């Protein structure tokens, strides 16, 4: 028999997280996670579950009864949405303008669906004209779009126009709100979104483990009237309905500590006020945007669909993005990330989310990134960047 491994005390580095997620966790959320466990069917935990659902409805801007934290990361809430809504033989329309449209495609195919595409270049939003043409050609049953594309820094405008097209064709709409929930304007009910999923580790500044999901009555009716059960037992919403609905019947052991965490994170949203929170993200990200542009760097998306919570900053000519990312991590304990897929090596992905969205973090980032770029001989004006950043913050 092997000897017991000699593993030391857990001492991860103290990073400042300004990549595409996770973001820095609020101290109150960390404190909530240290409170004692109770059982997942304890009366006190059922009260906590009720609180989470009420707070989540507020943050999603919805009255949907069926609003829950899925036990798992954001990809679990994504798969719960798509895997339950798409039945074998259904057609799902997915976008091609970013990495997470591809993940939608993969999940829909695994659910037995037929996938068709609405095309747009990486770094651009979907054009409603193209969406209309795709609906006229394919008549899909489900339409998925990414509200805030983490891989490109693009925010989808004209959401109500897209949902109207889908509903005119009697299709259900699934929105990826992983990088928008709690950070940029999102109106699930007013915009006609049938299903929205998200993750807690971005604009909510909460560790991953309990991921927001909301479905309206029309979507839930389809889930509950399926001819065949979804392929995942764990993510079967007709079974989870028994645990998160009025019955509160055992389905699985919920991640109790993560539910504590998301409750506190959502309390912080409510205390700040959702509109105020959107404004804070916009104000701080605008200072970041002004600073990097004055430094001599561009942003990948145009201003009309710039995503404040995730800034896709263009890598200057002659700069190795990976080296710059490693430099700021090694010298400043600051995490940013590079591009994915078609934008690999071309952009830095810089998050401005949740507890990380504050002026001192932007100032810190400007120092670290400017130094990393200068170390590679890039032609950047760090002083001009600081001046523009400060001017924006003083407005």
UniProtKB/TrEMBL annotation:
Boundaries of every Aminotransferase class V domain copy: 38-297
Statement: the UniProt record of this protein carries the keyword Phosphoprotein: no
Keywords: Aminotransferase, Pyridoxal phosphate, Transferase
Name assigned to this protein: Aminotransferase class V-fold PLP-dependent enzyme
Family to which the UniProt record says this protein belongs: Belongs to the class-V pyridoxal-phosphate-dependent aminotransferase family.
Lineage: Archaea, Methanobacteriati, Methanobacteriota, Stenosarchaea group, Halobacteria
Single annotated GO MF: alanine-glyoxylate transaminase activity
GO biological process, one term: glycine biosynthetic process, by transamination of glyoxylate
Entries under InterPro entries matching the protein: Aminotrans_V_dom, PyrdxlP-dep_Trfase, PyrdxlP-dep_Trfase_major, PyrdxlP-dep_Trfase_small, SP_NH2Trfase/AEP_transaminase
Source taxon at top rank: Archaea
A Pfam match: Aminotran_5
Chain segments carrying region Disordered: 1-26
Cofactor annotation: pyridoxal 5'-phosphate
């Amino acid at each position: 028999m092997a000897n017991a491994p000699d593993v030391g005390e857990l001492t991860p580095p103290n990073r400042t997280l300004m990549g595409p997620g996770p973001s820095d966790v609020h101290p109150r959320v960390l404190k909530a996670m240290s409170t004692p466990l109770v059982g997942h069917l304890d009366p006190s935990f059922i009260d906590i579950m009720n609180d989470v659902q009420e707070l989540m409805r507020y943050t999603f801007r919805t009255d949907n009864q069926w609003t829950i934290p899925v036990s798992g990361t954001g990809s679990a809430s994504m798969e719960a949405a798509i895997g339950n809504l798409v039945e074998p033989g259904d057609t799902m329309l997915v976008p091609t303008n970013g990495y997470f449209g591809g993940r939608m495609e993969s999940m829909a195919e695994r659910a037995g669906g037929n996938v068709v595409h609405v095309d747009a270049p990486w770094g651009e939003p979907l054009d409603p004209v193209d969406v209309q043409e795709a609906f006229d050609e394919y008549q899909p049953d489900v339409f998925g779009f990414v509200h805030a594309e983490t891989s490109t820094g693009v925010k989808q405008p004209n959401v109500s126009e897209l949902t109207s097209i889908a509903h005119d064709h009697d299709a259900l709409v699934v929105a990826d709100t992983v990088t928008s929930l709690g950070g940029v304007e999102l109106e699930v009910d007013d915009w006609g979104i049938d299903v929205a999923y998200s993750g807690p580790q971005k604009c909510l500044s909460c560790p991953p483990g309990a991921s927001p999901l909301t479905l309206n009555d029309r979507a839930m009716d389809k889930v509950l009237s399926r001819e065949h059960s979804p392929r995942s037992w764990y993510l079967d919403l007709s079974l989870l309905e028994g645990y998160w609905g009025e019955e509160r019947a055992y389905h699985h052991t919920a991640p109790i500590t993560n539910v504590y965490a998301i409750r506190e994170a959502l309390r912080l949203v409510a205390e700040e006020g959702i509109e105020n929170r959107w404004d804070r993200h916009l104000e701080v990200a605008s200072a970041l945007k002004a600073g990097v542009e004055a430094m001599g760097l561009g942003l990948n998306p145009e201003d009309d669909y710039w995503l404040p919570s995730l800034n896709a900053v263009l890598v200057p000519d002659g700069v190795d993005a990976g080296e710059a990312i490693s430099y700021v991590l090694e010298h400043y304990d600051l995490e940013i990330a590079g591009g994915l897929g078609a934008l690999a090596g071309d952009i830095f992905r810089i998050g401005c989310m949740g507890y990380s969205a504050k002026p001192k973090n932007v100032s810190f980032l400007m120092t670290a990134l400017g130094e990393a770029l200068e170390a590679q001989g890039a032609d950047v004006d760090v002083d001009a960047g600081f001046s523009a950043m400060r001017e924006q913050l003083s407005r």
